[in-house]
Amino acid sequence: MVSGEVLSDTLGISRVSIWKHIRKLQALGYRIDSTPKGYRLIDSPDAPFPWEFPGREGRMHYMPEVTSTMAVARDMARKGCPHLTVVVADRQTQGRGRLKRRWLSDQGGLYFTTVLRPEIPIALTPRLNFLASLVLARTVQQLFHIDARVKWPNDILVKGKKLAGMLSEMEAEADLVNFVNIGIGVNVNNDPTDKEPGATSLKNLGGKSFPRKKLLAGFLDAFEKRLDPLSLDTVISEWKRYTVTLNQPVRVVTRRETTEGIAVDLDDTGALILRLPDGTQKKIVSGDCFQ
Ligand code: BTN
Question: Ligand 1: distance of its center to the CA of 165 in Å?
Fold first, then answer.
């Protein structure tokens, strides 16, 4: 319990202003008991309001509904928003997946795009995606004790079902990267299985709701720590320790062809190396991997 007087002294605003702020927070879903002795926070909503991310609130942009966080983040990036800006939404009306697919974005999931302005050559930018998927799998494991794994190129799977997907977009001039935007969709408390039988969510796996705020904060903390100082040398080898793709028979579909083989390795750019039935090897830079 905190008294109105203490709040008013600490924040340097009148008790009437405090009361108005409390009313606003209550309208946003915060459960705050208000008695003559003061206020008590009972519960806060699982909404990623910027002030829930101390230290990065100026870079967090939360919107209940957007077309796609990729579109909003691209606009912001073109207008010069800072490195590590995050756009997060509760729902997307035109959520985008890889290879021009749709990404179902119902209430309950976590949908965000982070704007990066890395000082690295264009050729190294794919490693940022591998870093993001690796960090996300690790964060899910550490926070929730769920055995999340990475599937080439950047999916997160649990027990063979897709928990999260990742999409990236880059703009550069000559060899100078202007921005790399990484968009991540995680099925948290939504149930994607009706429309996507190969998908799952944290709630489906754990039989209870999971805190999206905690997941986002945990991911951003770990990801930002890895970006500063930026060292991408070990990313691919670390990623390999978390993958379910290597040493498995796979079918990889690209825009031009379908290739079947054993996934034997990744090269240092993240391209997948397949061993074909005739014993030769083939490198695949981008595509859809079925296993
Ligand atoms: C995939 O696996 O196909 C990638 C899915 C990426 C979805 C995320 S949700 C947040 C961001 N906004 C989008 O429209 N897409 C990405």
Answer: 6
